[in-house]
Every structure is written in structure tokens, then in C-alpha cells.
Amino acid sequence: xxSLRHRRLSIxxxxxxxxxxxxxxGYWLGHVTLLRTANAGLSSYASDLIGHSDxxxxxxxxxxxxxxxxxxxxxxxxxITLMQTLTFRSLQVKEIGRTHxxxxxxxxxxxxxxxxxxxxxxxxxTTGGTHVYSDSRLTFAPTATGTILEGGDVDVVLSPNAFxxxxxxxxxxxxxxxxxxxxxxxxxxxxRLDVDLPWILAQKETRKGGDLYRSRCSSRYDVCxxxxxxxxxxxxxxxxxxxxxxxxxxxxxxxxxxALGQFYLRRIGLAxxxxxxxxxxxxxxxxxxxLELPSRACAGAEAxxxxxxxxxxxxxxxxxxxxxxxxxxxxxxxxxxxxxSIEEVGWILRKNPExxxxxxxxxxxxxxxxxxxxxxRYVRKAGIRPRQIALELTERSTADLDVVRRAVLRLHHEGYxxxxxxxxxxxxxxxxxxELAVDAIKVxxxxxxxxxxxxxxxxxxxxxxxxxESLQLEVxxxxxxxxxxxxxxxxxxxxxQAQGWCFGKPVTASQLPKYQEQRRGSPxxxxxxxxxxxxxxx
Length: 538
Description:
By secondary structure, this protein is of the alpha+beta class. The protein is 46% helix and 24% strand. It has 15 helices and 21 strands. The strands form three sheets. An eight-stranded mixed beta barrel has the order 13-14-16-17-18-19-20-21, surrounded by five helices. It has a seven-stranded antiparallel sheet with strand order 3-2-1-7-6-5-4, covered by helices on one side. Strands 9-8-12-11-10 form a five-stranded antiparallel sheet.
């Protein structure tokens, strides 16, 4: 069937689109996840380096304390020997020297200078008063440069390899000493990264030029760490993981696209099929018997629509009735039910003038003349009385009272019964029951199920029955499925009608007379009918 092939092709295309979109989403999710993981790794790496730099600062502080005060005379042989011992033991320091008033006097390597040497140009001063000399030529190694820290008449030359054992593949770092008050910064170790002091002090993460950056600062010393990693290297090094994300996203997208495609196209296809079914009259009707209580005599039946799509799948009335309302087909559905039901059971109604045929209508059916003309035509043609037709209006349809009131008055004038369907589930109010002057209310099956239970709503059913009695309205109880529910309703002592599987499942029009005769001939029905007749004669 071309339409089926077209539908399958459309679903396949939607599934393919879903797979592509899912793969792209998977790649994006993997990309974001990897970068977030990398950011977390950079933050953790910076924290580790901060811990190491704090240990570094503690060692430098201990060296300074060893000479303040010094146990030996300034730049004496004993003091130089102490400098040599401390330098030998240190992993972080290459040289220790003594200074005074901006001049260098002696050190572990060069010993005591004959003529004090001026210190190199000052780079910055920390908030703690330590002087920093960056890229300074070293006295003990004239061809080399390094970083010198000086304070308390002690200077140290930092090891350029102090942080080397913290190196990680594809990740770079920079150690700087900072002074937030003066806005100064000096490089200590690592790579020279292109970031400014305000950003470093803000201790943020950012992406710049395709690279990820993270800064952390020590809470104890004037030291900050910046870590950096290339985003392209992160993604390149995790291609297999990215492919897994793409694969999972593609599979999820394919499944979702397939499901959505089937759902959406089914909805569209159902609407078109429903239009064709209405046009061709291929919908079917079944009839739910309605019985009198306590006699259990047949009082009539409710016409129920059944429909299966073109592939033979039964479609729930809740689905196709709502679809008919949404797509403006409800009038056609009502027209079909009125015409077909009267044609199928009209002869039964003619032979049994006490029986009633209940037909569901929508609020929109009460606007205009179509419903009135339809009823007049087919009721006359069938030769039945209008009183034998009960029009069931859902309770939520009574919201527009002005439209409904006029239509109900006219239908009453013409002899038809009006029942409020699914009573208790919509906009219940005494006002509209009084204003509409309906003949009966149908209690929704929701309340029937509460019979004999501890449900909170179990007390509502007796209240509805009392309300109907006070307003002199007939009651039809829907959804009676067990004998216990039927006995409960009979035990109330109130006359009412009921329908449900306890009394009989929906049957075709051809089966309805047989069901009616069985119920009419039952001993319970005969006995109850005699009681009813006696009560009426009184």
C-alpha cells in the first residue's frame, strides 16, 4: 500500500535525522564533559601546586630565621659554613647569601666578597616585605640568570627546577609571586602564560584562544598558580571517548526519532484515517444495556462508538473522540452516531416504547440547527417518540450556560431527554443543574469504584444520590462491575438505573433484543416490576 510505504519511509527519515541530531548532541555533550573534566583537573593541579609552593615558602622562611638572629658573626667562616650546609640540604634553593642595605656581601658558593656588590634592579616587593629580583645575573654563575628573594639581610637563589617533578603531560603551569595592593607580579617558575594579574587574583577559570586556564592563590603567602591546557589536545587525546558519546547519542537519537516519528505520523495518519472512516461510514456501534434497579429490567441502552484503524488496531474512544474535537470532526461523528444508532435500533424502540436510546453529544453540537434537523429527520423516519432519545452531555460541556440553556430548553420542548454525563468530575454546581432542568445525571464510574473501599471519595456517591433525589432527577450509575456494587446500590432503597459489566457488556444491535428478553423474563425483574406497579397504583 503506497500510503504505508510512504509512512514507513517518513519514519525512517525521522529516525535517521534523530540519529544525526543525537550524534551531534552526543559529540557536544562529550565535548562539554571533557572540558569540564579538564577544568576540574586544572583546578586540582593548581591546588597541588599551591600546596607545594606553601611548603617552598615555609622552607625559605626557615632559612631566613636561621640568620635572624645568626649564631655567628656576619659573613664569618662559621656563617658561610652554615649557608653551605643549608644549601646542600635544600631541594628548592641553589644559593644562600647575606645582604645589608642593598648590597651583597657573602654566600655559600662565592664566600666573602672583598668588595660588597650592589643587588640587581628590584622587580617587586611582596606585601610581607620580601624583595624579588627576577631574571637576575647570578654572582656564583655569571652566565646564568635566576630569581633572587631577599629580606631580613638574607637572600636565596631559587632553583629553576623546584617544580619540575610536578610536570604533567599536555598541561602547563606558571608560578608567580604577587602584590595585590601595588598591582605587581613576578614570574617564579613554569611556563610564561599570557594572563594578567586581575584575572589571576580573581581565581577564575576561562577559555582563551582555544586553551583552558585556571588560577589559584595561596591563602598564606603571596603566591599564585596558573594552569593551562589546550582544548584541542584534550579532545584529540580523548577521540575514542568522543566517538562513544557520538555513538550513544546517535543510538538514543535514532530511538527517540523512531518513537516520535511513529507517534507523530500515527497521529497524522489516524486523523486522515478517521476522516475516511467517517466519510465511508466504517465506524461501528455497540450498545451498553442500561437496567432499572432494583428490578434489573432493561430500560434501554447507550450507543458507543468503536473504531479500528486501517491496520486493524483498535483505537480507544478517548483518543478518537478527543481527536475529533481537536480537528473539528465532532459534528460529523455525532451525525454518524445519531443516524446509525437510530437506523440499527429504531425498530426495537418502536416495539418497546418504554426503552430509551442514549446518545452522546458535544457542546458544539448545541450550536446551530444541524443537531435539531438531524434528530427530527431520523426520529420521524424511525417512527419513534422523541422521549425515547436521551442526549448525554458531558459535564464539562456545560461551562457555557447561555448556549446550553437555550438548546436544552428547545430539546425539552421537542420532547427529548437531557442527561448530564460523567457527573461529579467537571464543574459541578447546583446552579446549572437547576438552570438546565436536565432529566438525569450519570454518576461517573470513578465514584462507583469506591463502593466498599476506604477511599477518600467513597462518601461522595451517597451525597450525589441524595442531591439527585432532592432535585427530583433520575440517576444512572456507570461502571457497575461487581455484584457487591449492585447490591450496595439496591440497598440504598433509591430507584435508579445502572450500567456496567455486572449487567452486561456492550453488544451489537442484533444482540440487544435477546438481551432485553432475557432480562425481562428473569424472576427478579418480574417480582420487582410487580412491586413497582403496586407502588405506582398506590
